Amino acid sequence: MITITRKIKNKFLNNAAPQKDYTQWNGYRLPMPENRYCTPEFKDDNYFVNSSKKEVDRLVEYANLKEGSRVLDIGSGQGRLAIGLAHFFPKLDSYFGLDVDRHSVDWCKRNISSVQENFNFLHLDIENERYNPNGYKLDTPVQLPFKDNSFDIIFLYSVFTHMRSKDVKFYLSEIKRMLAKDSYVLFTAYSEENCENESENPKGYLEDEYGQSLGALHRIRFSQSYWTEMIDDAGFRIDNFFHQCEKVTKQSIYIIKHK
């Protein structure tokens, strides 16, 4: 009797419909709230979609986003930017999302690329102590899998906030190579005046608003002067800067382009 019961149970489980890995909101297919990164606000569907639209609007205003643009989204996560771009700019020349988290990349392939063929996602197996500790260590030169001058816009949201300067410099160098002339990079960062050049989880920093830093690379803060130095050394100039403009994280925004 036990054996028969187990066989019936196993047959039922094997034939069960696959578990849904997305939720629908006002026509948008979104990742399940529990799988969304960043602060708790992003678990709200309305907030998540509106934040995506805000990023699209910002790229239009400050980075010349238009139909036919070629966009690279480094740290694409669960597709927050891609979802907004697919809705408002479905005829982009191309969109590529890179992320070190394989599960996020797989979700985006199933739920975005499957219906939007010009949107592509790649797993970037590079070490990040917080999100991909077993990835490839950037101890020797490596190139990202794109040709020179491949993109008109490169976007990094909450990427450099979890990265030490040696890795930031690698990405800035690769971004310089991949970015077309007269094009834009938009990224967020923890950037403050009158502090040490670089600090991982600085004691007391933003803890009153957002709690204590937890785990490796939770909050990497750079001084504004050090950011200016790294940007300049990589061959860029600052086109716009907005200090702590992200209300829910207090991150600042840099818009940079070729010198």
Q: CATH topology, what is it called?
A: Rossmann fold
Query: Structural class from helices and strands?
Result: alpha/beta
Number of strands: 11
Separation of termini? 76 Å
Q: How confident is the prediction overall: mean pLDDT?
A: 92
Which spans of ≥5 residues are poorly predicted at pLDDT below 50? 1-13
**What composes the largest sheet?**
9 strands, mixed
CATH superfamily name? Answer: Vaccinia Virus protein VP39
Order of helices and strands: HEEHEHEHEEHEEHEHEE
Percent helix, as a range, is 25-40%
At the first level of CATH, the class is: Alpha Beta
Beta-strand proportion: 25-35%
Instruction: Give the overall shape, derived from the CA principal axes.
Output: globular
Number of helices: 7
Assembly state (oligomeric)? single chain
Q: Calculate Rg over CA atoms.
A: 20 Å
- The domain count comes to 1
Structure description:
With 259 residues, the chain is an alpha/beta fold. The chain has one domain (32-258): Rossmann fold (3-Layer(aba) Sandwich), CATH 3.40.50.150. 32% of the residues lie in helices and 25% in strands. It is built from seven helices and eleven strands. The chain has helices at 2-15, 45-63, 80-88, 102-113, 165-178, 207-210, 224-233, and strands at residues 22-25, 28-31, 70-74, 94-99, 119-123, 151-156, 179-192, 198-200, 220-223, 236-242, 252-258. The strands form two sheets. Strands 3, 4, 5, 6, 7, 8, 9, 10 and 11 form a nine-stranded mixed beta sheet that branches. A two-stranded antiparallel ribbon has the order 1-2. The relative contact order is 0.12.
